[in-house]
Amino acid sequence: MNKKIITITGAAGNIAYSLIFRLLSGNIFNQDTKIQLNLLDVSAVLPVLKGVKLEVEDCAFKQLDSILITDKPEKAFSDSDFILLVGAKPRSKGMQRADLLIDNANIFQGQSKLINENAKKSTKIIVVGNPANTNALIIQNYAKDIPAENISSLMRLDQNRAKSILSSKTNSRVEQIHQLIVWGNHSATQYPDINNVLIDGSNQKILGLDSDWVSNEFIPRVQNRGAEIIEHRGKSSAASAASAIFDHMNSLVNGSNDWESMGIMSPNSYGIDDQIFFSYPLNITKSKIEIIDNISLTDDSLSYIKKSEKELISERDIIKDLL
Ligand code: NAD
Ligand code: LMR
Q1: Residue 309 has what DSSP assignment?
Q2: What is the 3-state secondary structure (H, E, C) of 123-142?
Q3: Is the pTM of the predicted complex or chain greater than 0.90?
Q4: Which end of the chain, C or N, has fewer beta carbons within 10 A?
Q5: HSE of 241, CA atoms in CB hemisphere, 13 A
């Protein structure tokens, strides 16, 4: 039997309440691999975590090895194979994700040092807590012994949203849509890019789209979907975020035969500043993540991408004293 240790922070929160169950029922790993879950949250909600643990046990998941619940990050990160950094404040109505920066940056700074000391050096870290890309930069800055390529921030929710909206518009099924990518920040400046999309191997339906719909409906709808959910639910997305974390992690473990989007440390590809976590188009195999080079960009695309880069640089400026 193999065992993987998966740490989830913010484990008593909304996203975790979907994520834990999706991970344990979803077969990311082969049948011989069991999962040890290390669930971390703050002391005040340890009773809630206890309740979550009881419910997980009640599911009798075949893949479950054991569950640790704790308010001690050093225990939670000990020997982790995967660390899902969800624990952070969510925004409420009227806020931008960057408004969370100061509050959440301290959480990520503190945890990154403990990750460095306690997790496996090969651990894969997925940053979800907002603003996810800049929090990933904080993690990379302090968890110096973890290779930067093992750290990524969640953009899959944006990619999934874009795919779903495009599938309705084009009367296609989501699995027929390929090469849909999202560039930049997980924020209202992100750029969902359909210029390379193939639907059933063809770009005919994309060429047939009204450019006004793309610029004035599709792109802003995807960019602002998080706020739209908050407007309706009164709380930020949780089940769809959990589903996207599952998809992101599945791509890291099993690779993907489609183009994917994740926030990764920019290596200056496409001329993007090299000290920010930026969402690029990626080819992901079991062993590596590679940026898809040589995508030709229109002037419009470049201007969206540069705007998002600028925002990430300004987020970095806000936390520069921490770096
Ligand atoms: P939530 O408030 O329901 O849960 C957050 C949990 O984190 C709480 O239980 C809280 O006690 C815990 N927490 C706070 N500080 C902690 C610490 N230092 N260590 C461990 N746990 C800590 O929020 P949620 O809806 O689960 O969202 C969590 C984060 O994910 C938010 O920042 C939200 O904005 C973000 N989010 C990101 C994406 C994305 O696509 N990147 C999508 C959805 C939500
Ligand atoms: C989302 O995209 O739904 C999350 O980042 C939550 C938010 O604040 O929008």
Answers
A1: H
A2: CEEEECCCCHHHHHHHHHHH
A3: yes
A4: N
A5: 26
Q: Which residues contact 35 (CB under 8 A, 6 or more apart)?
A: 3, 4, 5, 6, 23, 24, 29, 63, 64, 65
Nearest CA to ligand 2 atom 3: 226
Neighbours of 226 (CB within 10 A): 24
pLDDT given at position 29? 96
Task: Please give the distance, rounded to the nearest whole angstrom, from the Cα atom of residue 225 to the centre of ligand 2.
Answer: 8
Ligand 1 centroid–CA 86 distance in Å is 5
Q: What angle do CA 178, 241, 67 make, to 5 degrees?
A: 120
Q: Is 97 in the pocket of ligand 2 (CB under 6 A)?
A: yes
Ligand 2 atom with least separation from CA of 91:
8
C-alpha closest to that of 314 among 142, 134, 157: 134
The string of DSSP letters for 180-214 reads: -EEEB-SSTT-EEE-TT-EETTB-HHHHTS-HHHI
Residue 253, C-beta contacts closer than 8 angstroms, at least 6 positions apart: 28, 29, 286
**Parallel, antiparallel, or unpaired for β 2-9 and 33-40?**
parallel
pLDDT at 103: 86
Give the pLDDT means over successive 10-residue stretches in the chain (323 positions). 96 98 95 96 98 98 97 98 96 87 92 96 98 97 97 98 98 98 98 98 98 98 97 96 98 98 98 97 96 96 98 95 86
Contact 308, 277 (CB under 8 A): no
* Contact 131 CB / ligand 2 (< 6 Å): no
CA–CA dist 35, 5 (Å, integer): 6
Give residue 298 CA to ligand 2 midpoint distance, Å: 28
Distance, in Å, from the CA atom of 209 to the CA atom of 225, rounded to the nearest integer, reads: 21
pLDDT of res. 316: 96
State both tokens at 194: 């359909």
Q: How far is CA 264 from CA 78, 140, 147, 169, in A?
A: 24, 10, 12, 30
Q: Which of 1, 27, 5, 263 is nearest to 122 (CA)?
A: 5
